[in-house]
Design goal:
The protein is mostly helical and 175 residues long. The protein has helices at 2-58, 68-98, 105-125, 130-156, 158-174. The chain has a domain at 43-149. Helix 2 (68-98) packs across helix 3 and helix 3 (105-125) packs antiparallel against helix 4. 17% of the residues are buried.
Length: 175
């Protein structure tokens, strides 16, 4: 009888350990997917910032002073930047529409504010001042990157762990 109870206990423990391991694995995969999503999102926002920043920097380049080879390289660079920007804008737009299923409410609000700021910049200058538009989009992208970075840390629990550690350190020194 004692051997039977030991066997049953071992089976029950094996099942419990297996379930806990699977739950931990699923949780880890979910966290890794969210971390990958936030990293990709920040990269896409940077691509948008970079395209607009390059536009400002490149304005002073006079295409007439470039050789044919330089012009070709310049045009190829801009085609690549335009395509990268187009893809980045599409990905950000997709995340805004998907909403909080994949991202936190705070990140969704930051992206929505970014979209509104870019739309406002385009209507504010009514197409007359491309530098104003591009400059406003750069500023909005920088703010959005900072906001997404902070809110993604909260969503991934990175700020919480750091705050908890600081609290323990403070408590240790005040006691």
């Amino acid at each position: 009888m004692e051997m039977f109870l030991t066997l049953v206990l071992q089976v029950v423990l094996a099942v419990v350990v297996a379930k806990l391991t699977l739950a931990g694995s699923r949780s880890q995969k979910w966290w890794e997917r969210k971390e990958e999503l936030y990293s990709s999102l920040i990269e896409k926002l940077y691509d948008i910032f970079n395209y607009n920043s390059q536009y400002i920097d490149d304005y002073h380049t006079d295409p007439d002073t470039l050789s044919a080879e330089q012009k070709a390289a310049h045009e190829a660079k801009w085609e690549a930047l335009k395509e990268q920007n187009r893809k980045a804008e599409a990905e950000v737009e997709k995340l805004i529409h998907i909403g909080t299923f994949r991202i936190s409410d705070a990140v969704h609000q930051a992206l929505s504010a970014f979209k509104k700021a870019t739309r406002d910049a385009k209507t504010k200058y009514d197409g007359w001042n491309s530098f104003g538009i591009v400059d406003d989009i750069c500023d909005a992208a920088k703010k959005c990157i900072e906001s997404v970075r902070e809110h993604s840390k909260d969503d991934l629990g990175l700020n919480y762990r750091f705050r908890r550690l600081l609290h323990k350190i403070r408590r240790h020194f005040t006691e």
